[in-house]
Amino acid sequence: MKISSLQLNNLPDKPGVYFFKKEKNILYVGKATSLRDRVKSYFGDDLDFRRGLKIVKMVQGATAIDWKQTDSVLEALILEANLIKKFLPEANTLGKDNKSYNHVIITDEDYPRVILVREHDLKYQESLGFNIKYQFGPFPHALQLKEALKIVRKIFPFRGEKDGLNLKEVGLRKIKSVRKSNLNVELGLSPDFSVVSRNDYKKTIRNIKMFFEGKKNFLLKKLEAEMKQFIKGQEFERAGQIKNQLFALSHIQDIALLKEQNISNSGRIEAYDVAHTSETNKVGVMVVINGGVLETSEYRKFNIRQKGGGDVGALREILGRRFEHTEWPLPKLIVVDGGKAQKNIAEKVLTEFGFKIAVVAATKDERHRVRGFLGNPDIILKNERDILLANSESHRFAIRFHKQKRKKDLLG
Q1: Is the per-residue pLDDT at 167 higher than 50?
Q2: Which CATH architecture has domain 5-95?
């Protein structure tokens, strides 16, 4: 590796986007709350545990690191998505295998909505129920993207997915949707179209478009010019509104994004679950979450071979087959669905393979809702959010795989 310690030490302790490069080719694009801390983390001894073989090879093959500092984590999030889409770096599986990631969509309507749509759903645009005017993404960090939209919406109130135009229109919908729509107007998150004109709302949509295109500086100049025009025309109330937007854009408060970045730095977590109907069509799955991100390309399905043995026997088979794959990166934490029996069998398999990996079991109530955890309390406290996400995703994935297998058997 030809990356010097001087390059690492020159990185700022600020948010932004970083690039691993080989000569002039961009190998990988990532975002960071602290560019210095994030990039230095790639040079620790446990990188292969945390990020996997592809990233290890990428770091070893890189000859330079470059970066672009941003004013906020929110802007780093947007810039990362734009650059992945532009360069399609080889090591960014997020930019190529993005079926589980989200896009920000601005609909093609008289009063456009700004909504999140999953990559998979975009493949079937005819069933979306709306036409697409503008599309941004993919964004790999779903929870951060939702927080980002909340920040943008406070600056530029927009019509959301279920927001109506007026009481007559939304009155045809369910009462809950009506209340939510009205509440968004009252909170200043959605425009009151009895006051806001169609042309003014079009300006708002153009502003949102520019922001997601990464043109914040141009947007600031545009808004400043508009504010001066309103002052010149003695429309001081409207000038004041733009002044507030200028201030908000220049002082973006993305504390929620900083928090999300911090709690999602737990490394690779693997979660396992089993699904069957009275011991028939029994299947198991492994899902992976890495740094708070669901790594769908690393999910695995297992058709259970042994007869009988219940969920515990199936879990033993799954883990045994999984750890035969020495080419797969090792997790720092394993999450199993069940109780003490599942936790014990997982630890027994790990011992047989000579691994010391923490195991957490998610115990459920009669409605299959998590009621508690079994495992090291410190590990659970530190990783609770990711443990819940991994367990929920493994259950969803297992049920889906089981239904597919059952349907296939029914069809012969």
Answers
A1: no
A2: 3-Layer(aba) Sandwich (3.40)
Contact assessment for residue 223 and residue 207, using Cβ atoms and an 8 Å cutoff = yes
* Structure tokens that stand for 124 in this block: 């079937």
Q: Is the pLDDT of residue 284 over 80?
A: yes
* pLDDT exceeds 70 at position 308: yes
Confidence of residue 113 (pLDDT cuts 50, 70, 90): very high
119 Cβ contact partners less than 8 Å away, ≥ 6 residues apart: 98, 99, 100, 101, 102, 103, 137, 138
Tell me the average pLDDT of the chain: 85
The residues, ordered by sequence, that sit 6+ positions from 261 with a Cβ below 8 Å of its Cβ are 33, 73, 144
175 has pLDDT over 70: no
Q: Is the dihedral of CA 250, 255, 257, 262 positive or negative?
A: positive
- The set of residues, in sequence order, having a beta carbon less than 8 Å from that of 128 and lying 6+ positions away, is 117, 121, 122
Q: Which of 87, 16, 91, 107 lies closest to 55, judged by CA? A: 91
Q: Say which CATH architecture domain 264-410 belongs to.
A: 2-Layer Sandwich (3.30)
- Whether 188 and 160 have beta carbons less than 8 Å apart is answered as no
Q: For residues 105 and 132, is the Cβ–Cβ distance under 8 A?
A: yes
Kind and range of the H or E element at 171?
Answer: none
Whole-number Å distance between alpha carbons of 20 and 78: 18
> CATH topology of 5-95 equal to that of 264-410?
no
Domain spans of the chain, in order of start: 5-95, 102-259, 264-410
What's phi and psi for 196, nearest 5 deg? -85, 125
Exposed, middle or buried, 44 (CB in 10 Å: 0-12/13-18/19+)?
A: exposed
From 345, 338, 334, select the one nearest 370 (Cα to Cα): 338
Q: Which of 347, 276, 348 is nearest to 306 (CA)?
A: 276
Backbone angles phi, psi at 102, to 5 degrees: -105, 150
309 pLDDT above the threshold of 90:
no
Rounded Cα gap, residues 347 and 224, in angstroms? 62
Question: What is the C-alpha separation between 42 and 204, in angstroms, rounded?
Answer: 40
Neighbour count for residue 191 (Cβ, 10 Å): 21
- Give per-residue burial for 361-377: e unless 16+ CB within 10 Å, then b: bbebeeeeeeeebbbee
What is the sign of the dihedral through the CA atoms of 329, 333, 334 and 337? Answer: negative
